[in-house]
Amino acid sequence: MASTETTTSDTPDAQPETRPDAREDARPDARPDAREAPKENGADLAGLEAGLDALETQTAQRTAFGRKLLSKALPPIVAVALVLVLWQLAYHFKVKEHYLLPSPADVGRTLQEKWLEGTLLDYVWTSLSRGALGFLISVAIGTPLGLIVARVKVVRAAIGPILSGLQSLPSVAWVPAAIIWFGLSDATIYAVVLLGAVPSIANGLVAGVDQVPPLYLRAGRVIGATGLNGVRHVLLPAALPGYIAGLKQGWAFSWRSLMAAELIVNAADLGVGLGQLLEQGRELQDMSWVLSAILLILIVGIGIELLIFAPIERRVLRSRGLLARG
Amino acid sequence: MAATLTEAAVDKSTTASATDPAYAARISHVSKSFGRPGAQQLVLDDITIDVAPGEFVTLLGASGCGKSTLLNLVAGLDKPSAGEIEVPGGRPALMFQEHALFPWLTAGKNIELALKMRGLAKSERRDEAERLLEIVRLKGAYGKRVHELSGGMRQRVALARAIAQDSQLLLMDEPFAALDAITRDVLHDELTRIWRETNLSVLFVTHNVREAVRLAERVVLLSSRPGRIAREWEVGIPQPRRIEDSAVADLSIEITEQLRGEIRRHGQH
Ligand SMILES: Nc1ncnc2c1ncn2[C@@H]1O[C@H](COP(=O)(O)OP(=O)(O)O)[C@@H](O)[C@H]1O
Ligand SMILES: [Mg+2]
C-alpha cells in the first residue's frame, strides 16, 4: 500500500469527460481540482491512526492459572464439605434410625463394594451410553425441527406452541404409553428420552434464532449471503449460543428422562443402568445402596455438563466477547 | 477494482469506457410508505438522485427523515412503493452505523466471507483479505476478534469488508456517528484517501452538516415528513479538506440555515 502522495498528486483526472454534459453544467469546476492538492501527509495519517488504535485497544489482563483455579474450585468444595458435615451430624444425633439414614461413610463403603465387585463402571456405562445415544438422536431430530419451526411461519404457528408445551410435560408421563407401544425394551427407554430431549433442543434453537440481531441478517444479505448460504454462514453461527444452551438443557432432559425410564422399565434381559440400580436398592430396602445410586446419577449428570457442555459454551461465548473475564 | 488500489487509481481515467452507464446509481421518482393500506405513512416522496461513477454524494437530513430507508432501498433490502432504482454495477456494498461485523469470525474471516460470497477462489482469499486490511491500515488485525477491536478499528474492518464486495457503489449509513470526534476525523481522512485511490462511488448518509461538507462533492439535503429533496450543493472545495477549514465552515453555515428552516416549518402547524 503506497502512501497518498505517490498515488494522488499525479493521478490524471479525466472523470468530467465521462459525464453527461448536463452534469458538467450543473457542477462547474467541482471535480478537476477536487482531488488534487494533497494536504495530509499519508505517513502522518498512518501514524496518527496507529496511535489511536494503540490507545483504544485494551490489553487483556490474565490472572494466574493457579489463582483462577482456586477461586473457581474452592467455593463448590467448601459447599460439598458443608453438606457432608451436616449429614454426618444428622447421622451422629440419630435424626433417623441408622438403616433409614446411613452415614456418608456407609454410602462410601457401598460404593467401594460395588467398585470391588467390578460392576460399578458397567452400571455407569450402560446408562451413559444410553443417555449419549438418546441425546445424539435427539440432536439429529431436534436441530432440523427447530430450524424449520424458527424459519417457516406456518410450521411455527402449527407446532411452535405444542413444542414449548411438551417441554413442560414431565417425560415420565410418557413411560406408560411407551411401555404399551414397545413393551419392556430398549425402544421404550429411547422413546422416553427422545420425547424429553427433542422439544428442549428444538426450542433452544428457536430461541437462538429469534435472538439473532436483525442487523447480522441484513449485513449477510448485503454481502450476498442469501438463501442456504445465509443460513449456513450467518443464521446458524449467530444462533449458536442459544443452540448450545438448548443442547445443554437437552442433555439434562435426556438424562432425567433416561432415569425415569430405567426406574420403571426393569427387565432381566435389559442391561442394568443406574436407574435400575436405584430400583434394586429400593427392593432390598438398602438405603446406602439407594443413596449411592442417587449420588452416581448426580455425578454423571453434573460431570457431563461440566466436562463437555460448560467448556464448549465458555469457548463460544468468550470468542464473541460475551463473557466477562475473570 | 480487484487489482491493487494504486493501479486502480492510475487507471481511473481509462476504466470508464464509453459503454459504461453514466451513473453508478439512478434513483428516479422513488417514494416509500410504511404501514397497512388506509393508515399509511409516507416516508420518502418523489426522490430523484443520480450518483455519477466515482462521485461522492452525501445525503443530509434530520433524524427520522428517511435516510436509512432510502439507503435500504438502494441496497435492495427493501422495495420502493413507487419509482425505480437502478444500480448498474451490481449489488452495492453497505456500511451501517453499527459495524455489523460477525462476532463469531475474526476480522480477517469477516472479510473473507464477503470475498467468498463474491466468488473468489479459496486460495486467493487470505491474501486478498490481508491486502484489504492493509488498505484500511489494520495490517496486524487479521486474527483479531471483533470485540478486541476499538470502535474505529471495527468500522475500518467493516469498510474493508464493504470494499471486499468489489462493488462499484458504496452506501454508508452514518458509519461514523457512534465514534468520538478524534477518531471520526481520522476516518474522514481515511475514507477520502480510499475514495480517491479507487473508482468507488459513494452515497454517504449523515445528519452531521460538517461531515457532509467535509466529505462530499455534492450534498443533497432532505426535508422531513415526508422526505423530499430540499436542495443540493456542489462542494467545490479541493480535497483533502479538513473539517475545520473555513471554506467547509462557510458552506456548513449556509446548509445549516437551510436545514433549520426545514425543521422550523414543522413546528408551525
Ligand atoms: N420498517 C418500517 N416500518 C414502519 N416505519 C418505518 C420503518 N422503517 C422506517 N420507518 C419510519 O420511517 C421514518 C424514517 O426512518 P429512517 O429512514 O430510519 O430515518 P433516518 O435514517 O433518516 O433517521 C421514521 O419515521 C420511521 O419511523
Ligand atoms: Mg438512520
TrEMBL record, chain A:
Residues 16-41 have a biased composition (Basic and acidic residues). Keywords: Cell membrane, Membrane, Transmembrane, Transmembrane helix, Transport. It is a multi-pass membrane protein. This is NitT/TauT family transport system permease protein. Signal peptide: none annotated. Residues 1-12 have a biased composition (Polar residues). Residues 1-41 are annotated as: Disordered. Belongs to the binding-protein-dependent transport system permease family.
Automatic annotation (TrEMBL), chain B:
InterPro entries: AAA+_ATPase (IPR003593), ABC_transporter-like_ATP-bd (IPR003439), ABC_transporter-like_CS (IPR017871), ABC_transporter_ATP-bind (IPR050166), P-loop_NTPase (IPR027417). Residues 25-249 form the ABC transporter domain. GO terms for molecular function: ATP binding; ATP hydrolysis activity. It comes from the Bacteria. Pfam families: ABC_tran. Transmembrane segments: none annotated. The keyword Nucleotide-binding applies. Keywords: ATP-binding, Nucleotide-binding, Transport. PANTHER family: ALIPHATIC SULFONATES IMPORT ATP-BINDING PROTEIN SSUB, TAURINE IMPORT ATP-BINDING PROTEIN-RELATED. This is NitT/TauT family transport system ATP-binding protein. It comes from Streptomyces indicus. The lineage of its organism: Bacteria, Bacillati, Actinomycetota, Actinomycetes, Kitasatosporales.
